[in-house]
Amino acid sequence: MSQDKPNYEKVDGADLLIAIVAASYNQVLVDALIKQATKGLKAGGVKEANLRLVKVPGSGEIPYVTNMLALSGDYDCIIGLGVVVAGDTPHHEIIAHSTAKAMQDVALRSEVPVINGIVVTNTRQQAEERCTGSLDRGTEFAQAALIMAQHRLQLGERLDQVEAEERAKNGGNEPFAQN
Question: Disulfide: which of 38, 61, 78, 89 matches 56 by Cβ 3.0-4.6 Å?
Answer without folding.
Answer: 61
